[in-house]
Fold this protein.
Amino acid sequence: MATKKSNTTTSAKAAAPAKKSAAPKAKRATKKATPVAPVTEDLFAQPVAATPKAVEPAPATKKVPAKAAAKNVRVTFRVRAEVGSKVFLAGAFNDWDPNVKPMADKEGTGEFVCTVTLPKGRHEYKYVINGAWCADPECADWVQNDMGTINSVKVVE
């Protein structure tokens, strides 16, 4: 029986070191595998090449030349008023709001100027100088309005 004890003892000693060397290898494999898998991976995501819209041009690109034809034009308005006045431009293009478009006298000479972008067509307007509505004295084109006064008309071509 002594032979059997030495065989089991020998095989137990041989098996023990094998378990110790296998355990560190398993830990190394786990450390390498963890960074490979992303945390927020979408398993149901479609590949980009599978969507046909990525290949076709957007329909909006076909309409760009049409929009370029309806381009707006920058128009400068000028009026003379007393230095230090508060002058605004009001018209159909800003819903006749007398406070939206202020005019500036940058040089301090009494010439108030502002620039607006308008589409082509006829545009009615007035100046509001210190709270008083005034037609443009330099504009020969005017129309009568619903209030019984006149509006100046600017034609943008």
Observations:
- The helical segments are 2-33, 60-69.
- The chain has two helices and eight strands.
